[in-house]
Design brief:
- About 95% of the residues lie in helices and about 0% in strands.
- Helix 1 runs antiparallel to helix 2.
- It is elongated, with a radius of gyration of 16 Å.
- Keywords: Membrane, Transmembrane, Transmembrane helix.
Length: about 60
C-alpha cells in the first residue's frame, strides 16, 4: 500500500510540474504582449489561456 501511494504521489508531482511549466510558458508569452500592447487584449488573452489550460486538465 505504501508503494502504491508513492507511485500516485510521483504521478501527481509530475502533473503538477507540467502544469507549472505550462503556466510559465503562458506568462512568458502573455506578459511581453501585455507590456508592448498595454491594452485589454493581452489581459484577455492571458485569462483565456489560463481558463483553457485549467479546464483542459479537468
Amino acid at each position: 500500500m505504501e508503494r502504491y501511494n508513492d507511485i500516485f504521489f510521483r504521478e501527481d508531482l509530475r502533473g503538477y510540474m507540467r502544469k507549472l511549466f505550462i503556466f510559465l510558458i503562458g506568462v512568458g508569452i502573455a506578459f511581453p504582449l501585455y507590456i508592448y500592447l498595454g491594452q485589454i487584449y493581452s489581459l484577455g488573452f492571458l485569462l483565456a489561456y489560463f481558463l483553457y489550460t485549467a479546464l483542459r486538465d479537468i
